[in-house]
Amino acid sequence: MTAPGVPESGHARYTYRLRVSSTAEKALLAEWNRCRWVWNQCVATSRAAHKAGEECGPARLDKMLTGWRAEHEWLREGASVPQQQIIRDFAKSRAKALKDIKAGLPMRQRAGMPKFKKKDRSTPTLNYTRRGFRLKAGRLHLANDIVLTVVWSRDLPAEPSSVRVYRDSLNHWYASFVVPVQAEPLPETGRCIGIDWGVKEIATTTSDAHDLAHPEYGKKAAAWLARYQRMMARRKPKRGQAASKGYQEARRQAAKVHKKIARQRQEAARKWAKRIVRDFDRIAVEDFRPRFLAKSTMARKAADAAIAAAKAELINMARKHGRDLRLVRPAHATMDCGQCGARTKHALPLSERIYTCTACGAVSPRDKNSARVMLIRAGLDPAGVDRVRPDYPPDSQAA
């Protein structure tokens, strides 16, 4: 069974920096303004349909896009492909939010409904399918005669099926190609590992040599980030006024710090994930969704840990190298014993870091015990369990 959020097809993204001329950038921003208008129209239409008790699916929005293009000449001047793709993105976002609502998830855990994209706060992002772009002489040609120079840091392994052109917080443009990839199997080791996510340590495993410590990249850069944010606060323009050069420079420096932190987190997670899949054939991972931590007293440290990024890198690396990765539900993981399967009568407070089983007397660090529980629930280490709770059969989801 495929884990939630893990695509079955063998595709990967290859991202490259773009060299964009002033003419090309003007054309890209014009395309984005049209797509942003289409998105906002979809949001308004969806809300009106919801109040009226009507359906608002992609087919209805596609028909409305045809009418909008016939009505507005400035909209017809743009390519139809990115406008159609923005409707697809809207439909996926809305469907995900409705699915979470029907599942009864609490507000803090479910995806929000699509909102309006504001001009000064939305990031330009354009998606093109195969009929909306082509590669010729090392350059990217988009619909509507937009030509971009790609910095080819590596070769594409296959013909791309789609491309996403976007601008980051530093005003750098990138092209992200989706290409089919083949699995790269690694030699079998015959070993398995259980992984439990945390805040003090990002990942605690059943192998002491493979734990992922919390590097605290955000905490180390906090002083520089606070300095630039104070500069922005002092130079913040009044409503309706243009931002000064000092404000723009401070904003750019703050964005550079955020970008550096994100890259450090991604690199550390990627290196750790590569070690895991190289040394273990079967991996049991806690299917942990850390969104609720954003409203707890551990919000700052949890955000700096970037657990979701580490989990995503591990899933992608396991898929790339053909490893057996299983996502395991985390309910009561800190209450069950990793040796006998017995469960404590009460939930353990966070201050209690040592787990002591009242049934078999096993004593182990709390996170290490949870990592072993992940192995048991995934069915990867059944021989080491004397007694497993009958209501907890192996229920993992293979990624």
From TrEMBL:
Entries under NCBIfam families matching the protein: guided_TnpB
InterPro entries: Cas12f1-like_TNB (IPR010095), Transposase (IPR001959)
Glycoprotein is among the record's keywords: no
UniProt name for this protein: Transposase IS891/IS1136/IS1341 family
Family from the record: In the C-terminal section; belongs to the transposase 35 family.
Domain (Probable transposase IS891/IS1136/IS1341) ranges: 178-288
Domain Cas12f1-like TNB span(s) in chain numbering: 314-373
Pfam families reported for this sequence: Cas12f1-like_TNB (PF07282), OrfB_IS605 (PF01385)
GO process terms (BP): DNA recombination; transposition
UniProt keyword list: DNA recombination, DNA-binding, Transposition
UniProt superkingdom: Bacteria
GO molecular function annotation: DNA binding
